[in-house]
């Protein structure tokens, strides 16, 4: 496994966070999850958190300028020079273009972009299960379906964006966490 600058995306519930954690443990690079960073800002009660919370609870995307700023600040940190797994960023074409600009300046371009593919009903079932365990405020059925719509409209165009740059690898996200991890390992080798 040689790639160390990896973008991981897919619909909500596809296993991004889960697989990103496993990947960073193997690669020794930081996991950069904009969702985790936004939830940390909400928990800290910061101005950013207050603005983000309502948007996240509605199942919508936090504005591009806010998320790009958060991601850029994190990517500028020293540990990201060794590589990174971007988990849930970019989520729009504007974010993808901004990311290319940031990584060009740092001379650390993306090496591979993994998209986890899985059917809508499996996603809803996984997220409703998580709702019972973690109680995340955006894991209720109405918001989950909204997040899936937002994904199709705003994030799915990234498949074509990264395919056109020959960076895309599609990975089947169905099955157990171990099965998906194995497929990711194969896609990276
Ligand atoms: P995220 O934190 O990225 O939330 P998510 O899409 O639900 O993915 P997550 O990583 O948590 O879940 P996963 O698929 O791993 O974003 C939350 C919100 O933040 C967004 O809606 C948006 O408002 C905002 N946001 C974040 N980034 C943004 C950006 N760039 N731009 C704008 N707004 C942004 O896993 C889901 C569940 O499935 C888990 O419980 C897991 O245990 C389970 N699971 C995983 N793999 C499984 C498997 N193989 N089998 C069974 N269950 C599995």
Description:
- By secondary structure, the chain is an alpha/beta fold.
- The protein has a single domain (5-177), classed as P-loop containing nucleotide triphosphate hydrolases (Rossmann fold), CATH 3.40.50.
- Helices cover 58% and strands 12% of the residues.
- A five-stranded parallel β-sheet has the order 2-3-1-4-5, with helices on both faces.
- The model has no long low-confidence stretch (mean pLDDT 96).
- Bound molecules: BIS(adenosine)-5'-tetraphosphate (B4P).
- BIS(adenosine)-5'-tetraphosphate binds next to α1, α2, α3, α6 and α9.
End-to-end distance: 5 Å
The total count of strands amounts to 5
CATH fold naming: Rossmann fold
What is the CATH superfamily? P-loop containing nucleotide triphosphate hydrolases
Assembly type? single chain
Report the principal-axis shape.
globular
Q: Rg from C-alpha positions?
A: 16 Å
* Bound ligands, named by name, code or SMILES: BIS(adenosine)-5'-tetraphosphate
CATH class: Alpha Beta
Strand content: 5-15%
CATH architecture heading:
3-Layer(aba) Sandwich
Strand order of the largest sheet: 2-3-1-4-5
Total helix count? 9
The secondary structure category is alpha/beta
Task: For this entry, give a set of tags.
single chain; 189 residues; Rossmann fold; 9 helices; 5 strands; 12% strand; binds BIS(adenosine)-5'-tetraphosphate
Fold topology:
Elements: E1 5-9, H1 16-27, E2 31-33, H2 34-44, H3 47-57, H4 64-75, E3 84-87, H5 93-106, E4 112-117, H6 120-134, H7 141-155, H8 157-164, E5 168-172, H9 177-188
Parallel strand pairs: 1-3, 1-4, 2-3, 4-5
Residues 12-18, 34-35, 38, 55-56, 59, 61-62, 67, 88-89, 91, 95, 126-127, 130, 138, 147, 176-177, 180 line the site of BIS(adenosine)-5'-tetraphosphate.
